[in-house]
Amino acid sequence: MDTLLTTARLEQIEHIVKERQHIRVTELSEYLGVSEPTIRRDLKKLELMGRVKREHGGVSAAELATVEPPIVQRGVENREEKRSIGRLAASLIKDGETIFLGSGTTTLEVARCLENKQKLTVITNALNVAYHLAEKENITLIITGGVVRHSELSMIGHIAEQTLKDLRADKAIISMRAVSLQDGLTSIDPLETITDRVIIQCAREVILVADNTKFGKVATNIVAPATAVQKIITDDRTSEEIVSQLRALGIEVLQPSMAQDM
Fold it and tell me: Which residues form the HTH deoR-type domain (predicted)?
């Protein structure tokens, strides 16, 4: 019964916040007839789900993931965090493996750290990744083909998906527009969403690389639940609450500060 009451209260709080856009904890406490500590615990749960955003003394409606700037502009954003994530992800790749590298600025940082790997096979649907790896003689490069999504320099659609269905990788390293505990991995573009679903199925292990700005947000199209990935590599600025909740789902979360212990 307590669980049902809590679930109903969470839904009610979410509805109120969406209507008001911003409301104080004291107001919610008075309106729902429960203590402020209870409201704060509820808001913590809703924030981890990506439903609301807590602020000092109150709460506002969750930030929805909007259309990102083109990939060439995003390359300068959180550059150091992406580089550290890229180095850590590359350290997990073994000589002789077959990996899939998806599109994005963080996956490009992974590609930049593969120069010392031997007998590696890389499958990619990302033009920027393919361009960077094209002259690396230690890497066998497989490009999926497909319809180019210009803003992302990615290849999507039926051709890319059919190619991926005929291939298998040891690891798939992907990025995602938005990640939340409740809605999982979500994306803006519906066609890219379908391609991403096929990507996730082509590898024995799926590794998500995502800096702190990707979490607690929800985009329009659901790609997969968070548990579709086995590992998440993020930076040290991702909140401890989010990291703990992801680990509670059975997902291994790695951060650059842990690299020295690996």
Answer: 6-61
